[in-house]
Design goal:
Blueprint: H1 8-24, H2 32-55, H3 60-81
Helix pairs in contact: 2-3
């Protein structure tokens, strides 16, 4: 069966993976310091975006640079939030202790 085993080592591994996935895919409760840090980071990304727009010709290179800058900001924010606790588990059809549907 999916995500089940009678092997104690495998059971520990499954539990660790579930906890890691829960941390990765849930909302985190950032505090005022985290929000300030995200604002500082965002302001610096914006400044770099302005520099790129002003100093590079319109075209594929500029577009990709801005797209990857935007993508990098998303990952920076995710990295910042990682140190904060998960707000609450999201409601789902599959609970952490139940196996997912057989189609998986």
């Amino acid at each position: 069966m999916f995500l089940s085993s009678s092997d104690p080592k495998m059971q520990d591994h499954i539990k660790t993976c579930r906890e890691r996935a829960r941390t990765l895919f849930q909302s985190h409760a950032i505090d005022e310091d985290g929000a300030k840090l995200m604002g500082i980071v965002r302001d610096n990304y914006e400044a770099l975006g302005v520099l790129l727009l002003m100093s590079t010709p319109t075209g594929r290179g500029q577009s990709l640079a801005l797209t990857h800058l935007e993508d990098s900001l998303m990952w920076a924010n995710k990295a910042i939030t990682a140190k904060y606790p998960v707000l609450k588990p999201a409601a789902s059809l599959v609970t952490p202790d139940s196996p997912p549907p057989d189609s998986l």
